[in-house]
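anyone seen this seq b4? input:
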Amino acid sequence: MARGILVTIQAAPFARAGDEPALADLLADPILLTLIRCDRLSEGDLWTAIERGRAALRRRG
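predicted toks r here
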């Protein structure tokens, strides 16, 4: 067994709540909007998916 070795463990970026950008900021990003349009989706499609996810999380408790 090695002696005197110090291991530092750092949390991955965005590993805990509070570091994530706000959803409104993400949805206002022109790059994200371009990507969803390239996938033939609309902002409404994205909001529908978000609301369905939120509802599923509420049901799970």
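Residues 43-60 form the longest helix (18 residues). Residues 23-60 form one domain. kinda curious what u guys think
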